[in-house]
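Worked example

This section walks through a single chain of length 201. The input is the sequence exactly as stored; nothing has been trimmed or padded.
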Amino acid sequence: MARSRRSPEAEALRRSVRARHPGFVEAVLADARVTAAFRAERFEFRSRRDAVTQALRLAWASDAFLAQVFYRAKASAQARNIPVLPRLAHRLAMATAQVCIGDPVVVQPGFYLAHGQVVIDGLVEVGSGTAIFPWVTIGLRAGDFTGPTIGPNVKIGTGAKVIGPVTIGPGAEVGANAVVVHDVPAHATAVGIPAAVRVQG
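Given that input, the structure is written out below as tokens.
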């Protein structure tokens, strides 16, 4: 029986995506710093031990942060071609906070999930310092597997949808319940359905 039915191109893409996942410890500790800062808590960790302690505290205090840790475990296990564990970690993230982050998604170290109920799927990249609020969907248009590229330090408000191969520039903001189907420049704000862009000036 063949081990895989994927085409050589699909296999190459899968390997490329998995090679871009950050290391588990590096990513979780960066996520902990950003999460603590957004929660107005101490985020300058005194040592690696202190950082680990604070990450464990955040996982206990925040279902969303715990789900992030499960996502990081999934991505790390996939990068190492470990079987079973990625599916288990994905299910735990879903059960913990209804956080569904797909296999081809790459999230850079240091992002913040305010709460759960978040779906991110497709060929998507999320930059560091990005804050994502509840009921957000970052995903695909029908028939196109390329999803959004979210730059660093972006804020995506509650209920927003970012759909298709769009780019959200660094420092941009997506308003609550906005539906973004076009690029948003750096430091601009997108609001409405479909979202209109307001450039800060």
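What to look for: The helical segments are 8-19, 24-38, 48-61, 63-79, 85-97.
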